[in-house]
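U., I forgot to send this yesterday:
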Amino acid sequence: MKKKILAVLLATAMVGTMAGCGSQEAAQTATDAAQTVQETAETVADTAEQAADTVADAADAADATVDYGTGEIKVWVAEAIVDFTKAQIDTFMAAHPEFAGYTYVVEAVGEGDAAGNMITDVTAGADIFGFPQDQLARLVVAGALETVAPENIDAVKTQNDAGSVAAATVGDELYAYPVTSDNGYFLYYDKSVISDPSTLEGLMEQAEAAGKNVYFEINSGWYNTAFFFGTGCKLDYTIDSTGAFNGSDITYASDAGVVALREMIDLAASPSFQNGSSVSNATNVAAIVDGTWDSSAAQDLFGDNYACAKLPTFTGSDGKTYQLSGFGGFKLLGVKPQDDENKLAVCDALAMYLSSEEVQQARYEAVGWGPSNLNVQASAAVKSDVALSALAEQLAFTIPQGQYPGDYWTLATGLGDDVITGVLNKDSSDDDLMAALQAFTDACAAAK
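Result:
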């Protein structure tokens, strides 16, 4: 169209110029020339438009006739969502007739078992499989995970919460599709007893005044990281190509570690303190640090006074304020490397769909899995789930649980036991605490 307008303007200008010379014959010649220019411009424009349409039609035809091949795609998911996943794949297939050459087999394999099975025999393993984030590193080392398709990376990173994205990442590479952000711990409490759960000191004072108990399992390597990660300590392990632990970065033997350990000692000294994390085993409870798996039991226990919150802050022995942290847990969906690029494209498309906002919302409604998708987290249904809302807030302060040697868990229990039994107590000097933490750190560094 721009070319047509330009041709008319040029022709008009030519007519005006020729007429100005006073020559009628020249004017007629100019008019004829302008007409010819206009017709030529229109012809060129029409031809170009037709050519563009032809190219677009050819591209559409090419997209419609891409041969993705044929084959079977094996999917491993937890038993609780087998039927749900089958239904979602049916929906996916109906929306993508271009993938009609593939059949799908959905098998019940728990997340922990899936990772072990994949590492044992990648070739025989599933094409798409769910697994917990603490298995990510060993799956990458075993060559059992393809990186997320480039066209999906931005969507995965912007649509899911930062914790789940970090949990799916090794180095600078995104290796999996986040599915949930629902494994971690937070505070359940009786709101008739605890009016303000924001600080650990205030929480304990309110419980003590009411003669009620506060449960926190400080002799657990899962729970006592809340103190050490809260003050900034590190607990990282690396593994080699065989999956064996070959290095560590542990900074518990530090000033920050002393602050964390002394806070555990102060907590254990309270008459309201009880070591534990199971609602079913708790009595006379004002508050308990626990996870979403106990939400029904907590609701039954507290009744109309049921309430949840992120973990509180505490004022350390150095006078600084720290937020209790800890481990965060996420479920991820992985895609196995494929020799056939077309099959890989289909697997990536399906994994992206099964981890999408639409499916995460449906999965929450079907089985209650807490979403990693930000929009689903903000949905009315999830917002009304006070346990998931508290966990989502807490996960912003946590570290995704990585892979840890079995000895670490035993050592962490021992450290907590020393606090509970009074081996480490309020009269212990900072040097005593540093020595205990150095022994713990050395043992963890040598752990297998």
